[in-house]
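Limitations
The structure tokens in this dataset are predictions for the assembled complex, not deposited experimental models. Users should treat interface geometry with appropriate caution, especially where small molecules or nucleic acid strands are included. An illustrative entry is reproduced here so readers can see what is and is not provided.
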Amino acid sequence: MRCSNFEKNIFLFKEASEAQQDALRLHLKNCKSCERLFQQTMQMERLVKEVASQKITSANTAKLTSRIMERIPLQSSPGWLDHALDLLQNTFIKTALATISTILLVTFSVEFFNDTPPAKYQNSITSGFAILNSTLFKEETVRQRSKRKFFAECISPFKSQQYLIDCAKSKLK
Amino acid sequence: MYPEQELDLIRKSQHGDGIAFRLLVESHQALAYSIAFRFTREEQESEDIVQEAFVKIWKNLSKYNTEFRFKTWLARIVTNQCLDYLKSARKKSMSKILISEEMTISHEHKMESEELKTIVYKLADQLTAKQKTVFILRDLEMLEPEEVCSILQIPDGNMKSNLYYARLKIKEGLKKFYKE
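Predicted assembly:
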């Protein structure tokens, strides 16, 4: 292989695969110019590493944190409305809402324009409940009527309250 | 910070918990500032970039993708802001003036740590935006190649190609300091 084929891997030695590194090492043993380039690249790497090792920190770390946090409350925290609006941006939710709206609209329209009288009872359970309810209602009405009839003689707008009580007592006896 | 703890803080922050967000800021501020300073080398500019990056993160917390580390997301936002900063023509011309001045100084004096730093940064300024970004993230911030690809959203081959040209130019610039 030619030297030019190895040049890139000399500069990208750390990023090269193990196989590429082995091939390069083998080549360097037999090629002085590539070996020289490799040594220079390693020196360059050491110099750059020296620069990289100098930690960079802000002189006002705490102040910077405070400055950032001061900006945060001003940008009101994302509330329920923001979340709701975010949700509405979702295509799936948009489609789901559109589908539900269409279904509701169709159901409403069908019910609204349906002229046929409602079926009395859809099944035996509902009809049974209806019959039971109406029977109970009838019985209650009859009982109320008989009660009113029983005390009808006592009730008079021209008599006093005491008369009503005495009359009811005598009727009950 | 463990990934689980980090995720817990992010979830709390998503619900408007300022204390949780403060903890996230405190634990990642150094990385953000370091990246910003290596790009701009200006304290005030770097602080502004870091501040804007965290405000942007707060606003977009609901969009956070748990597939990526918070560190990667933050580094991406900071890097993009730094690249916007570098686009400014005024800043570019200022850097060029500084290069010529400081390169002359380095010829005359023994190279020391501070000088080396200045030269490396000035050489980095001569790189293209992509090459400089890859060089800063990989060689100065010493991030893993996968992280660099994830931050810049570029394929491995693209990252390596930019890194190769960046190292080639940096090597040429430091030639006079190599020992035979």
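Some entries come with short summary sentences. For this one: The CA atoms of residues 85 and 91 of chain A lie 12 Å apart.
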